[in-house]
From TrEMBL:
SUPFAM superfamilies: Thioredoxin-like (SSF52833). One of its GO terms (molecular function) is oxidoreductase activity. This is TlpA family protein disulfide reductase. InterPro entries: Redoxin (IPR013740), Thioredoxin-like_sf (IPR036249), Thioredoxin_domain (IPR013766), Thioredoxin_ResA/DsbE_sf (IPR050553). Pfam families: Redoxin. Residues 25-165 form the Thioredoxin domain. The lineage of its organism: Bacteria, Pseudomonadati, Pseudomonadota, Betaproteobacteria, Burkholderiales. PROSITE patterns: THIOREDOXIN_2.
Length: 166
C-alpha cells in the first residue's frame, strides 16, 4: 500500500513539475516546429521567427481575458516592432474563423493573426487548452518564458528589451 501511495505521489509531482515548466515558463526549450496559417492564407513557420524575438499568443474571441489584454499586446508590438520584435496571435481551434477575422479587422490588429483550425499548433506548444497562453521566443528559437493568463506587461517589456539587446 505504501509503495502505491508513494508512486501516485511521484507521478503527481512529475506531472506538476512538467506543468509548472509549461505554464510558469521556467527554463528554455526549442519552440516546436509549427506552421501558422495566417488570415491572408499565407503561412508563418517557427523557422521564419528565428532572428527576431517573438511573442506567440494563443487566444480566443470568447475569452474575456484575451480580449482585455489585446490592447496591451498591440501596444507591446508597436513599441518593439522596429527593433526586431514580432507577434503572432493564434486563435484556438474552436474559435469560429469569421469571429477571428471580424475581431482582427475591427480592432485593426497590426500583427500576424493565425487560426489553428486543426488544433495542431496548440498541441505542439504544450497542449494549450487555457487562454490566453503566451510564449516568448528568443532570436535563436528558444522559448524563454510562458504565461497563462495576462502577463505582467512591465515585466514582459523588461524581458523583451533584454532579449532584443542579446
Amino acid at each position: 500500500m505504501k509503495f502505491k501511495t508513494w508512486l501516485a505521489a511521484a507521478v503527481v509531482v512529475a506531472f506538476a513539475g512538467a506543468g509548472a515548466w509549461v505554464f510558469l515558463g521556467t527554463g528554455t526549450s526549442v519552440a516546436p516546429a509549427s506552421n501558422f496559417v495566417l488570415l491572408d492564407g499565407s503561412t508563418k513557420t517557427t523557422d521564419q521567427m528565428k532572428g527576431r524575438v517573438t511573442l506567440v499568443n494563443f487566444w480566443a474571441t470568447s475569452c474575456t481575458t484575451c480580449v482585455a489584454e489585446m490592447p496591451e499586446i498591440v501596444a507591446t508590438y508597436q513599441k518593439y516592432k522596429d527593433k526586431g520584435f514580432d507577434t503572432v496571435a493564434v486563435a484556438m481551434q474552436y474559435d469560429p474563423p469569421a469571429y477571428v477575422v471580424n475581431f482582427a479587422e475591427s480592432r485593426k490588429l497590426p500583427f500576424q493573426v493565425a487560426i489553428d483550425n486543426t488544433g495542431a499548433n496548440a498541441k505542439a506548444w504544450g497542449d494549450v487548452k487555457l487562454t490566453p497562453s503566451t510564449f516568448i521566443v528568443d532570436k535563436q528559437g528558444q522559448i524563454v518564458k510562458s504565461y497563462v493568463g495576462a502577463p505582467d506587461f512591465a515585466e514582459l517589456h523588461k524581458l523583451i528589451e533584454k532579449l532584443l539587446a542579446a
